[in-house]
Amino acid sequence: MSLALKIFAALALFLPSCTVVSTPEERSNLATKVMSPERDPLGEAMADHMYFSREASQGGNGIGGGGCGCN
Fold first, then answer.
1. Taking the model in full, what pTM does it have?
2. 48 φ, ψ to 5°?
């Protein structure tokens, strides 16, 4: 079996698995609140505020202060 035929057979075997299309009905199941990585937006915002306000060496997220957590 030639190398070109082996490459073609491998591509014919693996490439169709990259073209999975989900229907809108299937996507609605993935869009439920349970599937969200942050189920509690207020809790996530509070945790982000505490983390980023105490990490003085790490900038970003719009919180000023020197690391005491009181801002």
1. 0.33
2. -60, -40
